[in-house]
Design goal:
heterodimer; A: mainly beta; three-stranded antiparallel beta sheet; B: about 850 residues; Arc Repressor Mutant, subunit A; five-stranded parallel beta sheet
């Protein structure tokens, strides 16, 4: 898989997502949670996962708090506080549970998702 | 199934009741058909704390019987019915009401009665004893028409009675025959210091007074005449001249008796009849009557062990060492307090400025502790007692044990040196081994130790010692007591609070950079936001704070299971105008919100989607509502009854006070949520004693209760101070809340904070009321900053277009979350269950 072949779509402006927080985007009829996190090296990174939380069965992951657990960058589900690895979508408390991840990037000052 | 053994328990005082508690603990209670008789109209209550009944005249405070204890164990309880005869031939007992109950075994726990010496005039009106709630009720009624009260007897109970008379605002005298107060427990030096301290409190102490006659007074109801020719006029007299066993039933049944009364028992607490046990103050062991609760409980345990054959404990006498607070004065007596052991040595420390007296009595070779007297400061009681009970070798220069340590270090006992058999808590008979077992079973804090061993739940005198044992054991068992907040901060919440205050840190980034590692997490971010709010009180959505907020604080509503939020405007004190109530109804109707009245006397509106919140709140703010902080770790509500404005029983305006308090403390961010209530009279309709701070009106002001909780682990609030003015009350609450904010753990309610506090209620009082740490002014200043910088978070938010942008569900669409689906139930919305959602959205 090469991201070069992907078609990127504008979602929002960089400033629409506040540092260390998430927002939900509607993309191809899907709810995608996009996070803007400054990693341990001081580099700003974007992550995209399902907004749907499989534990609470609600569209709420974008409203969770981000942070790090050991070396993983995670979001905590706002309802029941399970942690999801933003890079892989895997739930730290129950590795059999995994949410989808999506390609996301910052292009200039525009946040983009790929189909 | 074999026939049940018919067990009759005669007497329902503390010891009789504890016998039944122990019986239940054996798991064999269902082998017995238990019938209990109590002469008093109420089931067992805690006589030791009878004086606390005076504070608000609530039996609940001293009730010993947990709800449903008797019925759920199938114990038949007959209160207000005295057993008048034991027929050992027919093997039945007969009660005053005519009940005849046959028995296989009897537990005699009839207790004692106060001895009234046959002084001429002792049977006049307005002369009382001090033993039962009825006695106290009579004294209270008589005090209304009197100004002066006298207690005959300066022993432990006499001083308790004097405290009660003081609380009734009588000019109080204590008359003692001996040359000093508490002649049995303390020596001359201690007695003098005790007299001095008690006189400071306004009680007149008369020693070496032999009352010879009580007759009509000139200026008061009675005139007491003493052998030395002096006289005292008083309206009320309370006799507290010792106790005598209630042994008439045993005497009539022909059981073996002591020459001066009391039912003779052996080490199993059996009387001369092998089917009758006697326990408590009616029992005579080795020619001694034990008038304290701890030996009574030990007898009850021995009787249960022997009866059920489930244990081997025997009663082999009891140590009569005691520590108590009399009128706020610490008094403790250990072992040979008078130094009567031949060749013993003693060391004494007297401090007239602080009014402290301490003496230890040691063996001739300085090696072992024999006794001690502590007046004014009994902090060393726990460790001294252990030295004596366990015959532990004293450090060289044992006087160091009672000398004040100038460097602040404690020269007490090394708890590790205590044998496992050492009894740490004598009220509840909890040994060091019991505490160790509890730690092994997973108990890791004092709250857990208290609930599984009951240690430190009696008089509380052993709290410091038990805490030391707990910590020592945790350390030994390799349980690293990790109090780090999370992996990002190697600090407790209290540490972080102090760092933030002292270094004036205003952002998470700064805190993390200076004191933490990693990116932070859902533990340390909200905790930091919370501390920053307690200290600096900036808006939750300020740019450097918003990313730290849990979703509830970020959206200023409680997220529900489907991702919608609740809207809860503040209704201070639960008082609301019809117009405002209509606004709530109209808003709920317009946005189709589910509506419910809360336990905190306000209205919850559920089912608001995030993008609807600003519109809803604009309408509410325009109508004069403010945020109710239902989402925050902050003050929720101050519940109230209508008080004296409407209620015929109300004695103070609880409504006005609750509104004042709610408006004062609204917006204070704290380690966990805070709930308050104000009741306008002692009927307590606002349920204030289940709150973090509860206030109950009295004729003279307000009684303040602290650290109560309903919820998962209910805790009755402790009476903290009585008859306060509005100003005193607010001063104490200011200090208490800021001290809690400063020292509690994350998400630790005040109830658990209190249970884990070394020194407990008395310590808290010394910090908040007596300002022992010299913090009071600082705490008040901090609170005043919070109060002065209050803003309604919602009002500020809807006035700021930048902040308003963040509430849309989608960053790139005005659509709303189609997974939020409601169905209708009882004419209101509720979240659809998942299967219904699927079928509807498919």
């Amino acid at each position: 898989m090469t991201t070069n072949n992907k078609q990127w779509f504008d979602i929002c402006n960089l400033n629409d997502i506040l540092p260390s927080m998430g927002r939900c985007a509607l993309f191809n009829d899907q709810q995608i949670a996009i996070f803007r996190v400054v990693n341990a090296c001081g580099v700003e990174q974007f992550y995209a996962i399902d907004n749907f939380c499989p534990f609470s069965e609600s569209n709420t992951l974008s409203r969770g708090l981000t942070g790090s657990i050991t070396d993983k960058i995670v979001v905590a589900s706002p309802l029941y506080k399970q942690h999801f690895d933003l890079a892989t979508g895997i739930c730290l408390e129950d590795e059999s549970v995994r949410v989808n991840t999506y390609p996301v990037r910052l292009n200039g000052s525009t946040v983009q998702l790929a189909a | 199934m074999s026939q049940k053994i018919k067990l009759v328990v005669i007497g329902n005082g503390p010891v009789g009741h504890n016998f039944l508690e122990y019986l239940v603990e054996t798991g064999k209670a269902d082998e017995y058909q238990v019938t209990v008789f109590g002469e008093e109209p109420l089931p067992a209550y805690d006589r030791v704390h009878l004086t606390s009944w005076f504070k608000n005249q609530s039996v609940e405070d001293i009730n010993m019987v947990s709800d449903g204890f008797y019925p759920s164990n199938n114990f038949a309880l007959h209160t207000g019915d005295k057993v008048t005869q034991i027929d050992r031939f027919k093997r039945v007992i007969i009660s005053e009401s005519g009940l005849e109950v046959s028995y296989d075994k009897i537990i005699l726990a009839t207790g004692s009665f106060p001895f009234v010496p046959p002084v001429p005039g002792h049977n006049r009106d307005n002369i009382f004893v001090y033993r039962t709630i009825e006695d106290l009720e009579k004294i209270t009624a008589a005090a209304k028409n009197g100004k002066v009260g006298a207690v005959i007897g300066g022993g432990l109970l006499g001083l308790e009675a004097a405290k009660a008379l003081m609380d009734l605002e009588l000019q109080t005298h204590v008359i003692e025959f001996a040359p000093r107060l508490m002649a049995v427990q303390v020596d001359d030096g201690g007695g003098n210091m005790l007299s001095k301290k008690i006189q400071d409190l306004g009680v007149k102490v008369h020693t070496q007074k032999n009352t010879q006659n009580i007759g009509d007074g000139d200026t008061a109801f009675h005139k007491m005449s003493f052998a030395d020719g002096q006289e005292l006029e008083t309206d009320i007299i309370v006799f507290s001249a010792g106790i005598r066993p209630r042994d008439e039933l045993a005497r009539q049944a022909g059981l073996g008796m002591g020459a001066r009364g009391g039912v003779v028992i052996n080490n199993n607490c059996l009387t001369s009849d092998n089917d009758i046990y006697a326990i408590g103050e009616v029992a005579l062991w080795d020619n001694k009557i034990y008038g304290l609760i701890a030996p009574g409980n030990a007898m009850a345990k021995a009787a249960v062990d022997h009866l059920t054959e489930t244990g081997t404990s025997e009663f082999a006498g009891a140590d009569m060492s005691t520590k108590l607070k009399l009128m706020g004065v610490d008094v403790a007596s250990i072992g040979d307090a008078h130094g009567t052991t031949p060749n013993s040595r003693s060391y004494t420390y007297v401090n007239d400025r602080e009014e402290v007296y301490k003496k230890i009595v040691v063996s001739e070779d300085d090696k072992y502790l024999l006794g001690a007297v502590l007046i004014g400061d009994a902090a060393e009681y726990g460790s001294l007692l252990q030295f004596m009970l366990n015959k532990m070798e004293l450090p060289s220069e044992p006087e160091g044990l009672i000398l004040p340590s100038l460097d602040g270090s404690s020269s007490g006992i090394g708890v590790d040196a205590l044998p496992d058999s050492a009894v740490l808590c004598s009220c509840m008979n909890v040994s060091k081994a019991d505490v160790i077992n509890a730690v092994e079973a997973g108990a890791s804090d004092m709250a857990a130790i208290k609930s599984c061993t009951k240690a430190a739940t009696g008089c509380g005198g052993c709290t410091a010692l038990v805490t030391q044992v707990l910590n020592c054991e945790l350390e030994k068992q390799g349980v690293e007591v990790n109090t780090d907040l999370c992996e990002h901060f190697a600090y407790t919440r209290q540490d972080l609070y102090n760092i933030i205050r002292v270094e004036k840190i205003k952002s998470f980034e700064e805190l993390l950079e200076k004191h933490g590692t990693g990116l932070g997490c859902d533990i340390c971010k909200p905790t930091t936001a919370n501390i920053l709010a307690s200290c600096w009180n900036d808006h939750v959505l300020d740019s450097n704070l918003q990313g730290l907020q849990d979703t509830n604080d970020y959206f200023m509503g409680n997220m529900q299971k489907d991702g919608t939020y609740s809207v809860v405007p503040r209704v201070a004190g639960g008082e609301i105008t019809a117009d405002k109530l209509i606004v709530l109804g109209e808003v709920a109707k317009k946005y189709n919100l589910y509506t419910k009245i809360t336990g905190g006397q306000r209205v919850d509106l559920f089912g608001a989607r995030s993008e609807q919140l600003p519109d809803i709140w604009r309408e509410l703010v325009d109508a004069g509502f403010e945020t109710g902080h239902a989402y925050g770790k902050s003050l929720r509500t101050v519940k109230s009854c209508v008080g004296s404005t409407w209620c015929r029983y109300g004695v103070q305006d609880s409504m006005a006070l609750s509104i004042l308090l709610e408006n004062r403390y609204k917006g204070l961010r704290s380690p966990h949520k805070l709930k308050m209530a104000v009741s306008g009279c002692t009927r307590e309709c606002a349920e204030a004693q289940s709150k973090d701070v509860g206030i109950i009106a009295t004729e003279n002001g307000w009684n303040m209760y602290v650290c109560g909780n309903g919820g998962m682990k209910p805790r009755h609030a402790d009476l903290f101070a009585s008859d306060l003015t509005d100003v005193e009350l607010i001063k104490y609450i200011d200090r208490l809340y800021m001290f809690y904010v400063r020292t509690a753990d994350r998400l630790q309610r005040t109830s658990v904070w209190m249970d884990n506090m070394e020194g407990g209620l008395e310590y808290l009082k010394s910090v908040i009321i007596d300002d022992k740490l010299g913090l009071a002014a600082e705490l008040e200043q901090e609170m005043s900053t919070v109060v002065d910088t209050y803003q309604c978070e919602w009002k500020t938010t809807i006035e700021d277009p930048e902040k308003m942008k963040r509430f849309g569900h989608f960053v790139n669409s005005k659509l709303h979350d189609e997974n939020v689906i409601f169905t209708t139930e009882r004419e209101q919305i509720r979240p659809a269950i998942t299967s219904a959602k699927t079928s509807e959205t498919a």
